[in-house]
Amino acid sequence: MTEHLVLRVISKLLVPPILLFALYVQMHGDYGPGGGFQAGVIFGAGLILYGLVFGAQAVQSVAPMRLLVTLACLGLLLYAGVGIASMIGGGSFLEYGALSADATHGNHVGIIIIEIGVGIAVASVMTIIFCVLAEWR
Amino acid sequence: MDAQAQGPRAIDLYVDILLIVLLVAAALVVVSLRNLLAAALVLGIYSLVMAALWVVLDAVDVAFTEAAVGAGVTTVFMVLAIAATGRHARVTHRRPWLPILASLAVGGLLIYGTLDLPDFGDPQAPAQQHVAPHYLGQGEAETGVPNIVTAVLASYRGFDTLGEVTVIFTAGMGVLLLLGVARRRRMDARDDE
Fold first, then answer.
1. B149·A115 Cβ contact <8 A
2. C-alpha dihedral sign at A79, A84, A88, A89
3. ipTM, 2 dp
4. How many Cα atoms occupy the beta-carbon half-sphere of A91 within 13 Å?
5. Of A47, A133, A135, which to mutate for an interface test with B (greatest number of B Cβ within 10 Å)?
6. For B145, which of A37, A79, A108 is closest by C-beta distance?
7. Do A114 and B147 touch (CB under 8 A)?
8. Pick from A49, A57, A47, A130: which is nearest to B83 by CA?
9. What is the number of domains present in chain A?
10. How far from the centroid of its chain's Cα atoms is residue A118's Cα?
């Protein structure tokens, strides 16, 4: 898609704010609408927009498949890891209150960490599916 | 009922009717289109209208997801899948009476079922009587998170959400293993020639 000048310029302008907005949605999910899932999809959509205009190879040079798969696993493991950590802290699986001496504080910290895990996993899975489908001919 | 209380509700009703008409129109267009690419794009419009409807229903978190996943990413995935396969649906001259009858019957049953549902937002509805009062009353004090949707999804229903993330992860790995590995094998075979 090298000939579409307008598309190339506009998407180049749009991708950074989309990625930034994803991070905002990720960290603001406690207070406003959004959270890890929405943030992950928006982050993935930013990369997918880039890939649609410049090709999946361009996305792969930023985020190689090996990195994406690692991140997808890490995100899921981060979520499950918080569950294990709260068991070590003396609670049951995913009982974040046990993460800290103050149950409310522990809950808040647990929620933030698992939302980050969800965001990482969803963003990488969306990008993986896009790259695989785009290169499937 | 005074006019002040009625005003916003009347607007809500008009917006609801407009959005639902658009929704049904989009669904009918998708079914009637033979061009799969056009059908995928109209499905994107369907999702966008649906997102607006979620906003009207005060479900902004769901609207967010619907707009990003339904209208955005899913449309791209479908367009890519169509680009990799074929653009036109196979035309059949058979009238699919049995499927039409089955979907009309199921649709009719569902509409009949909605007659028994409590009114929208009814505080006496069973769904509002179970654990919802506890979540709404104690949620912020127990989790430190003001957005009750996040508190329910991430903390009270944390195990469900872990399951959801596992489903998404499995979907990604499935696509990668089925399509990615097959493609790599083909590329290797091409290199060998």
1. no
2. positive
3. 0.91
4. 20
5. A133
6. A108
7. no
8. A130
9. 1
10. 6
Q: Which residue of A has its CA nearest to B181?
A: A132
Structural domains in chain B, sorted by start:
7-90 (1.20.120.1200)
Work out the number of other CB atoms within 10 angstroms of the CB of residue B18: 14
Nearest CA in chain B to A121: B169
Q: What angle do CA A131, A42, B52 make, to 5 degrees?
A: 125
Contact between B31 and B99 under an 8 Å Cβ cutoff? The reply is no
Q: What is the pLDDT along chain B (193 residues), one digit of tens a residue?
A: 344 445 567 888 888 899 999 999 999 999 888 889 999 999 999 999 999 999 988 888 899 899 999 898 999 999 998 988 877 777 777 778 898 899 999 999 999 999 988 887 788 888 888 888 888 888 888 888 888 888 888 888 889 999 999 999 999 999 999 888 777 777 777 766 5
Facing A107 at nearest CB: one of B76, B143, B179? B143
- The one-letter amino acid code at A37 reads F
Number of Cβ within a 10 Å radius of residue B173: 16
Regarding predicted confidence, which is higher, B185 or A128? Answer: A128
Q: Cβ contacts (< 8 Å) between B146 and chain A: which residues?
A: 30-31
What is the domain range of residue A84?
5-134
Give the pLDDT confidence score for residue A30 in this predicted structure.
84
- Between CA B17 and CA B20 the distance in angstroms is 5
A96 contacts B155 by C-beta, under 8 angstroms: yes
- How far apart are the CA of B38 and the nearest CA of chain A, in angstroms? 18
Q: How far apart are CA B48 and CA B32, in angstroms?
A: 19
